[in-house]
Amino acid sequence: MLLAVLMASCSPFTLVNSETYNNADLASYHTFRIVTPDEGRLPPGMEMVTYYNIAAAIREQMMDRGFTEDPQSPLLINIGLTVHREIETEPALPPGYMPYSGPYFNGYYPYFMYPRANYWASYYANAKVITGIYKEGVLTMDIVNINEKLPLYSSSVATILENGQSQFRDLKGIAEAVQTLFSKFPVPLLPQYRKN
C-alpha cells in the first residue's frame, strides 16, 4: 500500500507521522539545537556528510519558522534513520475463488454437514504472490525539551530506496525529505517564506 501511495504522489517522500506530545506549545520556544555526533553515534548507514546535510535542512526549516540556533537551548532536535526491507504481495487467487475441487452445481459448492475444511485442506485460500521487494528508508525527527527530558514532537518521512541507494544522500532529496518532515509542523513558516 505504501508503494502505491508513493507512486501516486509527485514526491518520492511520504509523511508517516507528525505528532505533538504533552500538549507542547512549540511556538513558545525561540531557540533550538540539533543533536551532534559527539552526543551519541550516527545511525547505521548514515555518513557524516549525510548527517551534515540533514542537519542543515532541518536548521533552515527551523530558522524559516523564526527559531534561532543556540547550543545551550533546551529544545533538542534528535535525528534517526532506519532502513528496512519490505515485501509487497497480492492474493494469488482471484476474489471469490473457492480453492476446493470437487462437485458443485450451477456455480455453488455444497454445504457439508461436517465441515469439509476439517479434512479438505484449503492450502491456497490465503496464498500470496510476491509482487515486489524493496528497501524503505525512514527519516525521523524528535524534538525534546532535554532539560526536562520531555518529548514534545515527532515526525517521520519514508521513501523507497532505489537500487539500495538512499534518497537521503543528495542535497535535493534531503531538502525535499525534510520539507515533507516539516509539512505538518505546528509552527508555521514566517510570512516571507510561505509560498503564495
Distance between the termini: 32 Å
The count of helical stretches stands at 3
Multimerization status? single chain
Report strand %: 25-35%
Cα-atom Rg, whole angstroms? Answer: 24 Å
Low-confidence blocks of residues:
1-9
Q: What number is the mean pLDDT?
A: 77
Q: Percent range for helical residues? A: 10-25%
Q: Please provide the count of β strands.
A: 6
Order of helices and strands: HEEHEEEEH
Shape: globular
Strand order of the largest sheet: 1-6-5-4-2-3
Largest sheet, strands/sense/barrel: 6 strands, mixed
Pairing-aware structural class of the strands and helices?
Answer: alpha/beta
Q: How would you summarize this macromolecular structure in one to three sentences?
A:
This protein has 196 residues and is of the alpha/beta class.
